[in-house]
Amino acid sequence: MPAQLTVAVGARFMLRRNMSIRDRLVNGATGHITELKMKDEKVEYIFVQFGGTTVSVPIRIMAAPFLHRDTVMIREQFPLVIAYGATIHKSQGLTLRNVVVRSRNIFQAGMFYVAVSRVTSLKGLHLAGLHTNKIIFDEDASKEANRLRSTLNPPLSPLQCGVNPKKNMSDYYEAANDSKQAA
């Protein structure tokens, strides 16, 4: 986390520590600043309204001990970082109304799925350039999904990507175009 935190009312922030699992105040929760409470010309509390709520939660400075060489050190800071954007990995597990996916930065199997599955509706999904060669699936995950599908009653038909594995989605587009031209 940064050494100095610059804040303003209305700014979007992400919580970086679990504060209350029951209240969904967990690492990765996002919201916007509604108020700053000052004491002796220093910020004592930052009030944040997290997504899906109407109540602002006071966030205070927290202590985090860590070991540096053989010395226990204590870092004191607000557990917040600016959050106008987030990586695909950091968004995993979040539910978001709007998502912008730039697929050219995808480098691992399953990342495209994680990115597009965070959004609550297609209206909120925005693709900033679609690079189909970056939509990569994992063959082992596909086999496991098909194994699980076969255990249902009635069993679901296998996913095609597991039956005839391709390296990425551009292979499917090329195969589809080849079959159209042959017809």
UniProtKB/TrEMBL annotation:
Looking up CDD domains in the UniProt record yields: SF1_C_RecD
Report the superkingdom from the record. Eukaryota
Q: Which Gene3D superfamilies match?
A: 2.30.30.940, P-loop containing nucleotide triphosphate hydrolases
Q: What is this protein called?
A: Protein CBG03690
Organism field: Caenorhabditis briggsae
